[in-house]
Amino acid sequence: MIPRARHVVAAALSSALLILPALTGIANAAPATAPASKVYAIPMARTAVDVKRVADYWKPDRLKKADSYSPATPGAQASPTASPTSAGAAAGPSGTTASAAAAAKRTAADSAAPTLPRKGTAAKTMGKVFFRFGDKEYWCSASAVTASNRSVVATAGHCAYDPRQTKAAEYWIFVPNPGANGETPDGIYVGAALSMHEDWSGKGDYDFDYAFVTVHRGFVWVAKDGGYVMEDVGRLQDNVGGQGLELNKKPGTYTVAAWGYPAGAQPDGSRPFDGKKLMLCQEGATRWTVAPSLDLQKGVQLMGCDFSPGASGGPWLIGYDKNRRLGSLNGVNSLTWNRDAKGWYDAVSSPYFDTTAGEVYRRAASQNTPPNVT
């Protein structure tokens, strides 16, 4: 368990967008549903040939050193003009006028129950995503989410798409329950399609720094004749289970447990985490927060959490059952905060998971993938 960090004051320091050189080219983004929808889907690896190309990139020798790659690191910003301890922390997002009954109805419609794997009494949903932008590899945290297609991963938007490059990540894979030396005991799952909100892809609005990625059937590498061959292991949810989904929960009315694989430096340069262990920020209360310079107007902040880069995309879970290792997804690690301007981060925040997040999730859950990729 991660120690609770220091005291709460006003200054905030965020981390989220990959600092990369600008590249030209527009991603092939298309509206996912009707023209009024703001959900966009971008193909990643469509065919078995595409999957094989991505798989070949992540052979065991590369996976063994994957933890040495850079955790997806956002750049630091100055203290926000509106402090998280000011009005923005206490009030809800502007324009929230729905009645409690209507909000409850939306929540019921958008919720999904957690699911155990087909074998076993405990889930193994959490892991890492590995990907590349340009000629450099990165990684983030992520989790499997229950879905009708049994093939959805939740992570941060900046762990799948860089709006400053207008470019989706390449060679994107999810490895649940990864070993410290590149082991993939529960398979490797290649990204098939990325679902996100257009305000993340279009302008990097941190109110929408989340992504749901539909993945192909998993595989493991098997040694054969001096090389490796892919062996199919089935669908993600069948193998590891899926976290539930809970939307439209008002901050301050619940507690949440945040998970991830932190690895990056703290503000004082220290590195208390190595990125090889799944870490838990002890369950805590939530509140609204804002960061105007990042267009974050309806963020949710968890205090007392000293996660550093690498934890990006890790799940926020309500009602976590430590025996079944399941809860309900209510956010993802997006920004880290140094509110007291001292040596360590002391809070983490997520975009507010409302009905819009549910639309993105349903888009990912509706995608079909080939029955076999090996």
TrEMBL record:
Q: Which InterPro entries match?
A: Glutamyl_endopeptidase (IPR050966), Peptidase_S1_PA (IPR009003), Peptidase_S1_PA_chymotrypsin (IPR043504), Trypsin_dom (IPR001254)
Gene3D superfamilies annotated for this entry? Trypsin-like serine proteases
Residue intervals of the Peptidase S1 domain: 129-336
Provide this UniProt record's keywords sorted from A to Z.
Signal
Pfam families, per this entry?
Answer: Trypsin
* Region (Disordered) residue spans: 65-95
Q: Does the keyword Signal apply?
A: yes
Q: Where is the composition biased (Low complexity)?
A: 70-95
Signal peptide range equals 1-29
Report the PANTHER family cross-referenced here: SERINE PROTEASE (PTHR15462)
Name assigned to this protein: Peptidase S1 domain-containing protein
Q: What is the lineage of its organism?
A: Bacteria, Bacillati, Actinomycetota, Actinomycetes, Streptosporangiales
